[in-house]
Specification:
Arp2/3 complex 21 kDa subunit ARPC3; two-stranded antiparallel sheet; globular
Length: 210
């Protein structure tokens, strides 16, 4: 349930989410690195397709997010990559909606940026050192952080919209735990594979880095 639908959230939550997303997009576009556009397009398309496949889990359903992996590999460019995919999903499949686009982007982009800030420097260091196990752990941490962060933000935005949404917020938190375990494994495998075949991608700096 990472895609919150239209008509659920309160106006203050919607306005806050839209303002935060607009700010994140402005900063990310200023820091745009042309070298990261091809991998950003690939990861955005992967997120677009994978999140269309929902797995029922109790009273809710879950799908892959990959936002932790995107933040780890793309840095700030993960924000527009997620935004574009969410726009297309809302337009073509009705996932989420246009009024909640800001909130949905915020809920996925902030954990992605957390991974970029905390784990991306570690990944660059590991990519130049003979420690494949370290790369795996960083990938696993990114996958789990992205999912758990999004789960916490989704639950928070629901709870802030009114007491009737408290039960739904609790369900979201519970359903995101097994998803975090699955994504940590997937992200670890992807990062480990890139470490073997294209380690330079893991060490690529962003445009504004020293």
């Amino acid at each position: 349930m990472a895609h919150i639908p239209d008509g659920v959230l309160s106006a203050p939550v919607l306005i806050t989410g839209g303002a935060v997303t607009a700010g994140l997009l402005a900063v990310s576009l200023r820091r745009l690195d042309d070298r990261l556009i091809p991998p950003a397009a690939v990861l955005s398309a992967t997120f677009f397709v994978s999140s269309l496949i929902s797995v029922p889990l109790g009273p809710s359903s879950v799908h892959l997010l990959l936002n932790g992996l995107m933040g780890l590999l793309l840095g700030w460019l993960a924000v527009p990559a997620l935004f574009v995919a969410l726009v297309l999903q809302a337009a073509f499949f009705g996932f989420g909606g246009l009024t909640v686009l800001g909130v949905n982007t915020m809920n996925m982009a902030l954990p992605a940026l957390l991974c970029a800030v905390l784990l991306r420097p570690l990944l660059r260091h590991q990519s130049s050192a003979p420690s494949r196990r370290g790369v795996w752990w960083i990938g696993a941490a990114a996958g789990a952080t992205g999912v758990l962060g999004t789960g916490a933000l989704v639950a928070g935005t629901l709870a802030l919209s009114g007491a009737p949404f408290f039960p739904a917020a609790k369900v979201v938190v519970l359903t995101f735990v097994p998803l975090a375990l699955a994504e940590s494994l997937i992200s670890a495998v992807v990062v480990g594979f890139l470490y073997r075949v294209e380690p330079g991608l893991l060490a690529m700096p962003e445009a504004d880095d020293g």
